[in-house]
User: What shape does this take?
Amino acid sequence: MALAGRVTLVAYILGWRLVRLLPERLAAWCFRRAADLAWRRQGRGAVRLRANLARVVPPGTDLDALTRSALRSYARYWLEVFRLQDLPATRIVGRMRVLDEARLRAAHATGRGTVLALPHMGNWEHAGAWLVATGIPFTTVAERLRPEQLFERFVRFRTALGMEVIPLTGGERPPSGLLAERLRAGGALCLLADRDLSADGVTVSFFGAPATMPPGPAALALRTGATLLPVTLWFDDDGWSARIHPEVPHTDIRTMTQVLADEFAAGIAAHPADWHMLQRIWRDSGTVGESRL
Assistant: This one.
């Protein structure tokens, strides 16, 4: 393992252990300070985030203040990831507010399979824990991180929360076939779908400009007859919120992916500070650099 990989792995392991030992308020204060430091340093991730946010808010918005809030929101996501396994189910469920939850329950009850497509908003790890805790186990796909030990640690973390995790690359079978099997068996999938990680992305109009999003959610829904539901997430002061958007009609991959993009845009516009996108989305946005912070 290269030196940079070892440093990254050790940092994550120490963070995971130390953050779980700190009092919650002290840990939250430390993560807010780290977010503020990232904002002041204006590294590649912060610069990209600001550029992305500039696309989704009205002219005249204070982008510096919004970017600082968004970095704090992203820091809160990581703080909660590190502490999520220690949270009691009563808190995971009790402080989650889901608007139009009936759409989710009705889709699952049909037994046709359900694809939940999400942008990188709020705390999608917590949303997954909530979904499992309320009776809907699901399968998801994970980008293979480097070093490999870090990827394996995240797989163990998600598995411990009740999720089935399939690697995007390097698995024994291509993920698409496994995901289709889960849907045909009446299962649920949760897929982050606002950033394409392949060369097969679908071009959509996103906040009025061309962007590329993954075809997987629409393709799987069409292939299996499953219900496709867009979901957006955001933070509340003392908990979490989500909205289950209307079912996407089965038409074709391009049209369905555009519907997802439109629903994501509505959710992001309502809660821009909770959209954690530090990577390039739009084709015409130039090269600033990529970062996972």
